[in-house]
Amino acid sequence: MKTLYSLVNDILEKDGAAVEKVDDSLMEVILPDSLSKTLNLPEYLVFAFNDKSAELADQVITYDSDIINGLADVVNKRGAFSQWTTPDLYLKTDKVEEILQKKLILNNATYRLNGFEEKVVSYLVLNYKYTAISDEKKENLVSIVVNELTLSTLDDFTNRINLFDKRSEAEEFSTLNTDERLSIRNILYAGNRCIKSRIKRELYDFEKSMNRRLQRDINRLESYYSLLKKEVEKKIAKKGLIGEEKERELLRKKAIDVEHKKKILDQIDKYSIKIECELISALRIVIPSVVLKVVVYRKKENKGVLLCWNPVLKELEKISCESCFYHSSSHFVCNSLHILCPDCYIRCSSCKKWTCRVCDPEKCIRCGLPLFPL
């Protein structure tokens, strides 16, 4: 993943700016006249990328800076979509069945290889920006690669394409024959489902930190309001209050409970994580591949599945879960032949039967009771 420094450097250089690195947090820039007017900046300036270097710079750049928004507009004018075709690559066709047995693990089903063929396969690299807002703010750029033939999702491998730059060819986004691709609706659905799983994994430590702070503040509130209620109880006991005086103190104790609950809700709202995510660009990569035709068997039913040997990654792509579209090391198959990761093929806590999140993402398909959310 590129740093903010390298991202700004690349954009400016591609738009004709002269960029010189002072150190890891400072950058000297001479902007061409057109870019200077577009960004509303002087032609010469120094950028800082952290607060420590701010005194030495004309502008401090963060993800929230107006300059980043200006650069985003510059990039958007180039087009949000592009396509890249790689040259002929070595395709591994020997020991295909042996590779398949190592890579495709189905815990409750069987399968067999029904042949393979060489094909040109396209991949859509979907670039997302997400922002997680809680007591702190976290943001990041994440790329998800979707195989447009199989809907398998992969981690970004575009950095490996650099090996072939001199022999590759950039093309218009719409020129590829679409016969061998699934619909863009299905591809975007897979990408959007996968990004949810990816963000959840990326925010694990962030969420853990927010929960720890929430519990700390709730414990402090518990201690404080518990002390207030004890003081009321001591006052009633010490003075031997009865009648209206005792009732008044008991009402005060109830008011303390109400305020306590309100403060806890305020803390929960403070530390809850609100996530905003948007698709900012896409790149289609076209490469030759070996496509394996696999038949999956579950009880008396079967269905065909396609898997690709990726010559850039030099490995067989993992099959993706049909619910969350994230790839795991092993899978389950439901009675309706949906292929699922362990998080999406679960045992219902009520009836103890196995249930599928594709057949019904919210309720157990056996007893109909709600499932916990993903």
Note down, in words, how this protein is organized.
By secondary structure, this protein is α+β, with helices and mostly antiparallel strands. The chain folds into three domains: 75 residues; 162 residues, no CATH class; 59 residues. 33% of the residues lie in helices and 30% in strands. The protein is built from seven helices and 16 strands. The longest helix is centred in the middle third of the chain and has 36 residues. Helix 6 packs antiparallel against helix 7. The strands form four sheets. Strands 5, 6, 7, 8, 9, 10, 11 and 12 form an eight-stranded mixed beta sheet that branches. Strands 1-2-3-4 form a four-stranded mixed beta sheet, covered by helices on one side. A two-stranded antiparallel sheet has the order 13-14. A hairpin with a 3-residue loop joins strand 6 and strand 7. The relative contact order is 0.14. About 4% of the residues have low confidence.
Short characterization:
The protein is built from 7 helices and 16 strands. It is an alpha+beta fold and 374 residues long.
Pick out its properties.
33% helix; 3 domains; alpha+beta; four-stranded mixed beta sheet; 7 helices; eight-stranded mixed beta sheet; single chain; 374 residues
